Amino acid sequence: MIRVGIGYDSHRFVPGRALVLGGITIPHSHGLAGHSDADAVAHALTDAILGAAAAGNIGRLFPDTDPRWKNADSMELLRSAHELVRARGLGLQQADLTIIAEQPKLDPHLGAMAAALAGRLGVTAAEVSVKAKTNEGMGFVGRGEGVVVIAVATLEAR
Ligand code: MG
Fold first, then answer.
1. Could you report the per-residue pLDDT of 111-140, keeping only the tens digit for each?
2. Considering the entire predicted model, what is its pTM?
3. Distance in Å, CA 64 to ligand 1 centroid
4. For residue 39, how far is its CA from the centre of ligand 1 (angstroms)?
């Protein structure tokens, strides 16, 4: 039995915040706005894992109205969501993510992101694929206003 989940997240670029994606701090002029650390990679993968288990979504689990999650480490939210599905007898089999951003160049950081995500989830880096592309200058991503992340995860019975 395999269950598939999809996750989507977007965050707006703002000056004066660190850019954190997949648990990796990336040198850039802007970071992402958000209640937590705004790690859109961790958020999209969290939603894919929760979705595969039909266990709700990140906003229901960790509401942004709750001061406990202010500036939260999203990698820890990801780990915690995976713990929740594990308690239901499921575990991550593999995940595939695409980050869509015009800037900065993310290719040099993708391996580190995959390793960091895999580490939090108790799988090998070979089971986590992180890809990046631009939006060819189109739309809000193309104008450099923010970042979009799409994630797919499969869960298997554990
Ligand atoms: Mg988010």
1. 999 999 999 999 999 999 999 999 999 999
2. 0.97
3. 10
4. 7
Q: How far is the CA of 38 from the centre of ligand 1 (A)?
A: 6
SS3 at position 64? coil
| Sheet strands (E) in 33-145 | 90-100, 128-133
What topology does CATH give the domain 2-157? 60s Ribosomal Protein L30; Chain: A; (3.30.1330)
Delimit the domains of the chain by residue range. Answer: 2-157
In angstroms, the CA 130 to CA 122 distance is 16
Angle at the Cα of 25 from the Cα atoms of 21 and 27, rounded to 5 degrees:
110
Distance CA(119)–CA(93), nearest Å, equals 13
**Range list of β-strands (E), the chain:** 2-15, 19-21, 24-26, 30-32, 90-100, 128-133, 146-157
Distance 112 CA to ligand 1 centre (A): 20
Cα(41) to centroid(ligand 1), Å? 8
